[in-house]
């Protein structure tokens, strides 16, 4: 869990103005699971996972614009193969469920994903990376708004970043925050794993 806490992006990692949401951290005994009906639920950690942590931050609403809400998920797997399986499963989920219910009153539609190994499609940081994009709808914030996520693997660690836009927020604003947050986490994993090798 120490590794997950060291890596999971805090508000400042996403860019200026981001603050903690409430709740700020997930219960580390559970992880998100996409069920057969394409609804996200909380499930117990599988035996292949050593630790997982999700942190929630946002750029608050201001000047007539809604918030940009982001989440960082770090999962430490027992083996590199286990982490590889998670990457493959994430890619499959978008194909199986292009429309997903995130939680009560929130959903994404038209989800499309793309995977890239190191050196492919601009991936120059992680051993494996995938990106997903779609439309976000919320009972609170309306829609459609921009939705974007990235997931990267370094060794047995996966890091994911999720971003949801709202009224007045451009695709670029969401994507910039996501790339900044995910890049910071990838660098943190490399530093932590490098320190472990010393």
Number of helices: 4
Shape, per Cα inertia axes: globular
Number of strands: 10
N to C succession of SSEs = HHEEEEEHEEEEEH
Strand content: 35-45%
Structural Rg: 16 Å
Structure keywords:
single chain; 4 helices; two-stranded antiparallel ribbon; 8-stranded antiparallel β-sheet; alpha+beta; 27% helix; 198 residues; 43% strand
Task: Please outline what is shown here.
With 198 residues, the chain is of the alpha+beta class.
Could you outline the blueprint of secondary structure elements for this entry?
Blueprint: H1 2-7, H2 11-14, E1 19-25, E2 30-34, E3 40-44, E4 49-59, E5 68-77, H3 80-96, E6 100-103, E7 106-117, E8 128-138, E9 142-154, E10 157-164, H4 171-197
Antiparallel strand pairs: 1-4, 2-3, 4-5, 5-10, 6-7, 7-8, 8-9, 9-10
Please explain how this structure is put together.
The chain is α+β, with helices and mostly antiparallel strands. It is built from four helices and ten strands. It has helices spanning 2-7, 11-14, 80-96, 171-197; strands at residues 19-25, 30-34, 40-44, 49-59, 68-77, 100-103, 106-117, 128-138, 142-154, 157-164. The strands form two sheets. Strands 1-4-5-10-9-8-7-6 form an eight-stranded antiparallel sheet, sandwiched between helices. It has a two-stranded antiparallel ribbon with strand order 2-3.
């Amino acid at each position: 869990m120490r590794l997950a806490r060291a890596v999971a992006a805090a508000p400042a990692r996403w860019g200026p103005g981001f603050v903690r949401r409430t709740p700020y951290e997930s219960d580390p005994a559970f992880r998100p699971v996409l069920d057969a009906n394409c609804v996200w639920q909380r499930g117990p950690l599988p035996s292949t996972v050593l630790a997982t942590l999700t942190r929630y931050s946002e750029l608050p609403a201001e000047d007539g614009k809604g918030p940009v809400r982001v989440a960082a998920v770090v999962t430490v797997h027992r083996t590199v193969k286990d982490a590889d399986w998670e990457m493959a499963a994430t890619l499959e989920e978008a194909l199986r469920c292009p429309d997903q219910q995130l939680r009560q009153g929130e959903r994404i539609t038209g989800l499309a994903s793309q995977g890239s190994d190191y050196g492919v499609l601009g991936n120059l940081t992680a051993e494996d990376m995938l990106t997903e994009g779609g439309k976000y709808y919320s009972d609170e914030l309306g829609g459609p708004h921009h939705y974007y996520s990235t997931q990267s693997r370094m060794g047995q660690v996966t890091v994911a970043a999720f971003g949801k836009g709202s009224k007045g927020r451009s695709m670029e604003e969401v994507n910039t925050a996501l790339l900044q947050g995910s890049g910071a986490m990838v660098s943190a994993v490399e530093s932590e794993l490098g320190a472990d090798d010393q």
